[in-house]
Amino acid sequence: MTAPTVRRRRLGSELRRLREGAKLKLEEVEARSGLSASKVSRIESATRGAKPADVERLLTVYGVDSPDVRTFLVALARDGSKRGWWQTYELTPRYADLISMEHDAVTFCTFEPMLIPGLLQTAGYARAVISTLSMSATAEEIAPLVEVRMARQSVLTRPDPLRLHAVIHEAALTARVPGLGVMRDQLQRLADAAAYPHATIQVLPLESPLHPGAAGGFATLGFGRPGLDVVLLEQLDRSLYIEEPHEVAHYAHAFERLTASALSPDESLSLISARRDATQ
């Protein structure tokens, strides 16, 4: 699956939701819009792209008057075939999906039980993590992956930055990462990122009671519209995206509970700084 398909999928999902909310069948949409039922169905299923003008017509039929909604969905249609910088690299489809969604997202909420989130990693830390998890990759194969991970972080420094909320288990701050000064530099990077007005970093202490994150890490990408948010579950050799609204809401609730159990941002920064000073 290529990155543009991510945009088409979100567009199709939202158009289907709006059609069903208007209580219209595909045949009725065809009669009112002039677009064939089969074409509308393919747009909704993301098997084909949509022209901005077609989206405008459908939104009019569905009675969508909000300028913000119309602008957002028309932009999804317009950018459906746009190539992102990441497509110059040889990435797995799932990884390209993630980068595309990070690029388009408004918010990124993540819980990490053992690692520093990718958007906050230093190059040295990223190199150690990628090397350890891939197990068999060569230095030549790892180098471009580190480059991509660093480039991903531009979403935090662009004019309209991604709003990041990270809950990191304290265990991730104590990991023994190979390389002189790598972990110290990484902890300094966290402390620096905590100063971003659009970033919230909390640490879940080791002595915390049992919590929803015990089942594993996850991230929620928000796009500023109900029904479009996506949950990412990452495993050693694969990733899973959850898009059903009721399932996404379940993870959002879990994240709320994690933030309530974690140290405050100020307390977290103090702990990160203390760990940094105690690390070689």
Keywords:
Endonuclease, Chain A; 434 Repressor (Amino-terminal Domain); elongated; 280 residues; six-stranded mixed sheet
Radius of gyration: 21 Å
| Poorly predicted spans | none
Mean pLDDT: 90
* Beta-strand residue fraction: 5-15%
Basic shape: elongated
The biggest beta sheet reads:
6 strands, mixed
Would you kindly provide a written description of the structure presented here, covering whatever features stand out?
The protein has helices at 3-21, 26-33, 37-44, 52-61, 67-78, 93-104, 123-134, 139-152, 182-193, 245-261, 265-277, and strands at residues 107-112, 163-169, 199-204, 218-222, 230-234, 239-242. Helix 9 (182-193) runs antiparallel to helix 11 (265-277). It starts with a helix and ends with a helix. The mean pLDDT is 90. The protein is an alpha/beta fold and 280 residues long. It has 2 domains: 3-78, lambda repressor-like DNA-binding domains (434 Repressor (Amino-terminal Domain)); 90-277, Endonuclease, Chain A.
Write the layout of secondary structure elements.
Layout: H1 3-21, H2 26-33, H3 37-44, H4 52-61, H5 67-78, H6 93-104, E1 107-112, H7 123-134, H8 139-152, E2 163-169, H9 182-193, E3 199-204, E4 218-222, E5 230-234, E6 239-242, H10 245-261, H11 265-277
Parallel strand pairs: 1-2, 2-3
Antiparallel strand pairs: 1-4, 4-5, 5-6
Brief description of this entry?
The chain is an alpha/beta fold and 280 residues long. It has helices at 3-21, 26-33, 37-44, 52-61, 67-78, 93-104, 123-134, 139-152, 182-193, 245-261, 265-277, and strands spanning 107-112, 163-169, 199-204, 218-222, 230-234, 239-242.
